Amino acid sequence: MEYFSTNIFITKDMMTSNNLNQSKKTFSEPPHDEIKDLIYQIRRLMQAGSLYTKELNRNYQVSAPQLHCLLTLYEVGPLPPSHIAKYIMVKSSTVTGIIDRLEHKGLVRRTRNSPDRRVINIELTDKGKTLAENAPSPIQQKIVDGVRRLPKSKIEEIIHNLQLLTHMLDVQDLEIEQPQDESQTPL
User: Fold this and answer.
1) How far is CA 171 from the centre of its chain?
2) pTM of the entire predicted model
3) What is the rounded CA–CA span in Å between residue 112 and residue 120?
4) Are 23 and 97 within one domain?
5) Helix (H, G, I), strand (E, B), or coil: what is residue 86?
6) From start to end of the chain, where are the E strands?
7) d(Cα 54, Cα 47) in Å, to the nearest integer?
8) Domain limits at 10?
9) What is the CATH number of the domain that holds 74?
10) CB of 133 within 8 A of CB of 74?
11) What is the mean pLDDT of residues 55-73?
12) What is the mean pLDDT of the chain?
């Protein structure tokens, strides 16, 4: 098989004079353009997330996970760190760093309201409540709003295709703490 710069695949059999006229109809574009478009669309999604995070940092001095944490506490109320991790779908160790940074900024505080001093809840400060009330919606909310307008068959198709991609990348093995039930999901 030879590959010409016109992006047309031609086999040696097709190059005989008898087959050349017949084979013109069998030329096909390689899937390269579709793959490029797929990669481009994935990069656009990643760039949108990056731009959103930069805007949050510039305008509100918080990251997207920090905002997600603040909004969860605003919607649900004080929670232990392990519950916050489940709501925002990160590891407990990750949420500890998020809480540390939010506490340093004066947006949350750790409280012990239980006789068991080991039990810690995280609650918003007044400054944290103000930020939660005035901050933009999380980027995933735009996706949720758009997906809700789609027919169920299209949503299932998107889920299936995203699962294909995550399996290709082996990200299905990433440890993400899932909510126990759907009522814990902030979306």
Assistant:
1) 12
2) 0.66
3) 5
4) no
5) helix
6) 2-4, 8-10, 108-111, 121-124
7) 10
8) 1-30
9) 1.10.10.10
10) yes
11) 92
12) 79
